[in-house]
Amino acid sequence: MIIPPDSFEIRQAKMTVDNRSEFLSAIQSIAQKNSTYIICFNADNMAGHRHVKAALHYAQRSFFSGKSISNSFEMEALLFAAGSRQCNMAVSFGIHEQENAVFVCSCPVNGNVWEELSHHMHFVSEAWEEITPEKEGRLRSFFSITPEEIGMVGSERIVDLVLERIALLEVYR
Length: 173
Description:
By secondary structure, the chain is α+β, with helices and mostly antiparallel strands. The protein is about 45% helix and about 15% strand.
């Protein structure tokens, strides 16, 4: 499947996952039926919509040029979200068992997919852009952002530092 650059739609959702493998299988089935890819990013580990968009952008460029790190587009997106080449690190940027708040993405855009996904998750319109001190700590840990870097640019620029780490993944492959 060829996807035009930056052809995706992002929504926010909450859901409870009892069995991660079964849930992912259901999502993959919906994706195949609708000729799209569906990626669920753990909102607790993402620095907002800009982070999601950057991960999708780099994953599309990498995967569809044949220069990907992984063998699936979904994992490629999670790797870029994590700014890492390690799948075990990328998994923490996807869904987990129990309660989940996720950025759900359809690549390419496919309006039909949302109705089917609504049987597995509840779409919300909450404001998820705020970087709480707890989230900042997680982001600093995940992306190895030092106190010196925060001191130089200020904590209000944490999203920019995360996006820089994602861009560096493409450079250092």
